[in-house]
Specification:
Among the domains are: 265 residues, no CATH class; 88 residues, Helix Hairpins; 96 residues, no CATH class; 44 residues, no CATH class. Helices cover 67% and strands 3% of the residues. The protein is built from 29 helices and 5 strands. Strands 1, 2, 3, 4 and 5 form a 5-stranded mixed beta sheet that branches.
């Protein structure tokens, strides 16, 4: 079970993010009255400054687009500013819902750039430059600020610790990049993992890597840091408060340092808490600090997020069907938390008390709060198309819909919850990835065990604690009730008096939070399909191949690297391999050569894959069979249409052939030469080639990767 939990390590990021969220909730819960006042303040902002803040946000987006443009120029590729802006806005939007989104989002939305002739290698390297320079610019700006604060004010050790971590990270990335490009230790290790890294290094080196353009990327990145400082100053001015240069620079730098280490929802919790604490040190009240932070996040977070949504709306495609529900769920979670932390309208509450007891109102508050916290976690898993995450989202939205009405007749929030629920139901077909039932069973058993232990621990504790700790002697029933309340993060019937009593309550709260978090994770963790065919299935496939095989590629369908799906209604099979959540099938089904038989077998295979959370793709389909696969909603992509070169007129001269000449010269300097051997090939030469191939595979500790093509000297 330990290996099962470690087999996918991304859940550690969700746990860290959950701790950040708990920190933010705890902080804002202590400031309920200040939040109410800050909301009123934000409603009365100076509109002229607010529009200036919007213009600075436009500049912020523009600078990010320019960073991408010059990052691509650094690797000798060109994209337009429009391309750079779209790339930033889309990645910025999706990064909100991805763990470590600032980095993981860089792997998305490359297709449009690829269609313009930029290779994947250059796209990935340009994105890498964008990310590294973004972190480096923060370190460059943060160092003098922290030194100044250390001299003039007492900067916190945690700020220096975070800064030190960022400096070490930048140094490691720069060294790793240099080592890779110079073919040092990092290059050697990566090429052992995958030979593709050798091709990557060659393409980058041939492309004349430009330091000048990287300095331009750094310049624009520093400009982005300045826009963040301007946003903070504009937020202060818009609220009618005085803004000093020191408070703007220090507030932005410290908050952004903590944002970098926060892996979820673009620093939600970490940014707010760190910024509020620092701003209050400059003489602002807590109410003013909260108001400034809220307005700052509108400029820095929400407006680019809205622009990102707009960038999707302007493009064709259905990715919004996956993004919109997750975004709405996260927003509803935030609305739930804020709604619980702010006092209800008195007249509505008085009206509600005529129909519901006070205990029911309190229970509704707790349910809405817990639903809000759970939604923020669930939104990340919803992005991955997980069925259980969708079920949980529907349940939480329903709880919010009812809870907002029964806690204070907050019909505005209920309408938003209803809208989210409708969107979830409308997009239900997008969620088919199963969850891991073994982990669900383990999580349920472990959570039940923790609950039982906490009940014993809590009942004994409450029952035998000295009267001075809570001011009363607990009966057995009171002990059980308060243990359950503490476990589910509900306030106890009696407030703790001493520090020891508070610690006792918090210990039960912590155990309850951990067990509930484990349950949520176990419920939504995706199921990973593992299956391999045995000798009996391979023999059956060979028998069917002898009976129905009719193409040159059918021979490769029974290799040992394939997995077989056998039809239950049609005699035949489909050969496939699993990679990255896809079942990649080789060619058409091997069965009776009739469209109806193939259709039935394909339908069975599609249903099987969907039940096992696998997406399907079919490699090397005959053009005459395209209509059959298109009837299953598949899109076709031509392969094998390689460039045709006129050998009589082809030349290596000219500027456009420079990279090709450099590559050939590099090979010649290393002693490589090209020799064409005409058939028939002598056995001695084949043996030498086999020896070289086997030696290369042994040096990389790899095996031959065979899917469609491949041969052995011993093959008859």
């Amino acid at each position: 079970m330990k290996n099962l939990l470690k087999s996918r390590n991304y859940y550690l990021k969700e746990i860290l993010a959950f701790l950040f969220l708990l920190l933010a909730i705890y902080f804002f819960r202590q400031q309920q009255s200040d939040i109410v006042q800050s909301v009123d303040i934000v409603k009365n902002v100076d509109l002229s400054y607010f529009f200036v803040g919007i213009l600075v946000t436009v500049l912020y987006i523009l600078l990010n687009g320019l960073m991408y443009v010059y990052a691509f120029r650094a690797v000798q590729s060109n994209i337009t500013l429009t391309d750079g802006l779209k790339l930033f806005l889309k990645r910025n939007l999706i990064s909100v819902f991805l763990p470590g989104g600032g980095v993981t989002s860089l792997a998305f939305f490359n297709q449009e750039i690829e269609r313009k002739g930029v290779s994947k290698t250059r796209i990935n390297f340009a994105s890498y430059i964008y990310a590294v320079v973004g972190i480096a610019s923060l370190a460059l700006v943060a160092f003098p600020v922290l030194v100044y604060l250390a001299i003039v004010r007492s900067s916190t050790a945690s700020s220096w610790l975070v800064f030190g971590g960022i400096v070490v990270l930048v140094a490691l990335l720069v060294w790793a990049t240099w080592s890779f490009l110079e073919k040092g230790w990092v290059y050697e290790q990566l090429t052992k993992v995958s030979p593709q890294f050798e091709m990557l290094a060659e393409e980058i080196n041939v492309g004349n890597f430009s330091v000048k353009e990287i300095l331009m990327v750094l310049l624009f990145s520093v400009g982005i840091e300045i826009t963040g400082m301007l946003h903070l100053g504009i937020a202060m001015k818009a609220l009618g408060l005085s803004a000093s240069i020191e408070s703007c620079i220090a507030g932005y730098v410290i908050a952004t340092l903590f944002y970098v280490i926060s892996p979820f929802l673009r620093g939600l919790g970490a940014v707010e808490v760190s910024m509020i604490l620092l701003i209050t040190s400059y003489g602002f009240s807590e109410t003013q600090a909260i108001s400034i932070t809220i307005l700052y996040r509108v400029f820095e977070f929400w407006l680019p997020l809205v622009a990102g949504i707009g960038s999707f709306l302007l493009n064709r495609g259905n990715i919004l069907l996956r993004i919109l529900p997750a975004m709405l769920l996260a927003l509803l979670g935030i609305v739930n938390i804020i709604s619980v932390l702010t006092p209800p309208l008195v007249e509505r509450l008085q009206l509600l008390e005529n129909f519901l007891p006070v205990a029911a109102v309190h229970l509704s508050n707790q349910a809405v709060l817990m639903a809000g916290i759970s939604m923020l976690i669930c939104a990340a898993f919803l992005m991955r198309g997980q069925r259980n995450a969708w079920l949980m989202a529907v349940l939480l939205s329903t709880v919010s819909l009812v809870g907002h009405l029964t806690k204070a007749i907050d019909y505005e929030e209920s309408i938003f919850a209803l809208f989210t629920l409708i969107i979830l139901l409308f997009t239900r077909k997008q969620y088919y990835v199963r969850s891991d039932r073994k982990l669900q069973s383990f999580g349920l058993r472990l959570a039940s065990l923790i609950l039982g232990m906490v009940l014993v621990y809590g009942v004994i504790g409450f029952y035998f604690l000295d009267k001075k700790e809570f001011g009363i002697d607990f009966s057995l029933s009171n002990s059980i009730e308060n243990s359950i309340r503490s476990f589910f993060l509900i306030e106890t019937t009696v407030s703790p008096v001493t520090r020891f009593a508070k610690g006792f309550i918090h210990s039960i709260n912590l155990l309850g939070s951990l067990s509930l978090g484990l349950l949520i994770y176990a419920f939504v963790k995706p199921y990973i399909f593992h299956y391999s065919s045995d000798e009996e299935e391979q023999a059956k496939a060979l028998e069917l191949l002898a009976k129905y095989g009719h193409t040159a590629d059918d021979h490769f369908k029974v290799d040992t690297d394939k997995t077989f799906f056998f039809g239950t209604k049609i005699e035949g099979f489909i050969a496939y391999k699993i990679a990255s959540g896809f079942a990649i099938a080789l060619g058409e089904p091997v069965c009776e050569d009739s469209p109806e038989s193939m259709r039935k077998l394909l339908h069975e295979f599609e249903v099987f894959c969907k039940r096992n959370s696998l997406k399907t793709a079919y490699y090397k389909i005959d053009e005459s069979e395209l209509s059959l696969f298109e009837s299953f909603g598949k899109k076709s992509l031509p392969i094998g249409q390689e460039a045709v070169v006129n050998l009589q007129t082809f030349t290596l001269e000219g500027k456009d052939k420079k990279s090709l000449r450099n590559a050939l010269n590099t090979l010649e300097k290393k002693g490589f030469k090209t020799v064409v051997h005409q058939a028939p090939i002598k056995d001695g030469l084949l043996q030498k080639l086999k020896h070289v191939s086997d030696d290369w595979l042994r040096s990389l500790e790899r095996k031959e990767m065979v899917f469609l093509k491949g041969c052995s000297i011993g093959m008859s």
